[in-house]
Amino acid sequence: xxxxxxxxxxxxxxxxxxxxxxxxxxxxxxxxxxxxxxxxxxxxxxxxxxxxxxxxxxxxxxxxxxxxxxxxxxxxxxxxxxxxxxxxxxxxxxxxxxxxxxxxxxxxxxxxxxxxxxxxxxxxxxxxxxxxxxxxxxxxxxxxxxxxxxxxxxxxxxxxxxxxxxxxxxxxxxxxxxxxxxxxxxxxxxxxxxxxxxxxxxxxxxxxxxxxxxxxxxxxxxxxxxxxxxxxxxxxxxxxxxxxxxxxxxxxxxxxxxxxxxxxxxxxxxxxxxxxxxxxxxxxxxxxxxxxxxxxxxxxxxxxxxxxxxxxxxxxxxxxxxxxxxxxxxxxxxxxxxxxxxxxxxx
Length: 347
What we know:
CATH topology of the largest domain: Lipocalin
Structural class: alpha+beta
CATH class of the largest domain: Mainly Beta
Number of domains: 3
CATH architecture of the largest domain: Beta Barrel
Number of strands: 19
């Protein structure tokens, strides 16, 4: 009888142990601690913490060994470590039974894992065969170095060295704060010189203004003058304004639109990305072409009748009326004749 009772008790203990070993990891288990996922070199690790649906990961570079040979290199190392330690990644996750889904930051898709417990470790095994490495979490405890840094009354043998280290640390933190502050306060500029760059002119006049990308202005007489203390702002109408000093005189140019700007009360229109000499050459070429066309038109006094053309079509093609066409050729509405290939007067 006693042996039977002992046997039943042993079987009960075995079942209890197996049940305890097979218990699934829960969200509460994940939330109960901070965890560490060690890197391959055991120097740079990831500290992991969990909420109900968010997994937060931050880099822990406190284990990196210093290779600095002077104070400046030490400052650089502390600055880099402070920046790395301030980095934080938040990923969505979901845990149901022994199956977990964790967001992939590169694709925004979810990777699937099988979750199990091994002693005090929690193991995430990828369900995808391509992902061969397990994701292993161990309970995170602060190192002696971290505890020492957090103890206000800690003492060192070399007070001078400690003072220098403190100065370097404070400088690093100040630099980090300045970098973060400047990143938060950065705003897209209202305008740049590229918005004003190009050749501008007043229609039907020789008034030209060339604004160059090297912050100079070329006037119509060919002089190039530097713009001093150039700044950009926005007026109450939301238009970009460029303020500068030209030959000691304060100037202001307002960008009315992408094709118009205002300077000294005069409205200029955009002529293109060219110089004044290039514009002059283009205008001369256009003028010559227009003169040649006018000469051609003036010399042309006759035209050839095309196949199937009526008097109306001949007159319209040459910019005259039917009555003019008939009169120039000694014809009238009651007596006219036009044949293909016939030469008729149009002037």
